[in-house]
Predict the structure.
Amino acid sequence: MKWTKKVLTFLLVVGFVTPVSLSGVTAEESSETEAKEDLPDVSILATGGTIAGSAEENTDTTGYDAGSLAVQTLIDAVPEMEEIADVSGEQIANVGSPNVTNDTLLKLGKRINELFDSGEADGVVVTHGTDTLEETAYFLNLVVDSDKPVIVVGAMRPATAMSADGPMNLYNSVLLAGHEKSKGQGVLVSLNDRIGAARYITKTNTTVMDTFKSQEQGYLGAIIGGTPYFYNEVTRKHTSETAFDISELDSLPQVDIIYGYQNDTSYMYEAAVENDAEGIVVAGSGNGSMSSVSAEAASEATEEGVHVVRSSRVGSGTVSQRDGLTSDSLNPQKARILLMLALTETDDADVIQSYYNQY
Ligand code: SIN
């Protein structure tokens, strides 16, 4: 019998034969493989945090160990990611984010550049504790030398909690990491269905889920029903446009943050100088203002060769430029990240200020 196309189609439709090709692979299997090949390669680099946290009770949302679950456990919990990306995981660290160090930052930045340079990844997701997430996100925003998407994600509820937010945040981040529209936007932060820019976003509340905000500049967009919608763009330079190259670095210069308050003292500045800090970021009051005592201590530190940058403890707004270095609208913790990187490139205060104006 000659198996004409018509007969084969009929038998397939009535279910008498299964669609087996000459190689023994079913049509279903081969179309699944083709679909998989079309999916973006997304690497998940895990560092710990509440997203990898587990508690004894599912009602416990505060007393738990951040950074106790391994990356594969996070991936296995969201099998739906297989439909949108070819996902792989790596454990960079597994700590609460206050324990993320400069070494972790360098390891992460170098690994991301390697994954992009080698073509192994089309996008990267970094899982991270929320407490210092914005610092890592801004660091990566300045050192990833690619327009490919990098998304930094966390969760406010541990993985064991009722209504844990980690799985959906992770799914959304993988979606963003593989999405055309995320390219060239700088490093993104995604929690709670929002898309934020590493440059602008900050944690604003100690415990609630809707904690990451971009008060002045707004979010870049949102993810609605599995589709990312972008409404804003970052106007500051980032990723492949920046001056910073970490490929040959084994460490970053020590930069400390000193808080300004009534009746503050000079000995924090003296301690920073004695301990070889190369930079100090002042979290000043209001528009970066400082008491006479701290201004005097800061100018003595400057005479010792320490670069002092004024920022504000207020949480939003730009510190206006006057004498000395100012952080533009970067909060103290992000101003520290930029100063560390700036000092790997230059000792010239004018150049450092130009970085604050550009990035
Ligand atoms: C942390 O930052 O590691 C703990 C808090 C969190 O992830 O929400």
About this structure: The chain has three domains: 5-36, 40-241, 255-358. The two ends are 73 Å apart (CA to CA). Residues 5-36 form one domain.
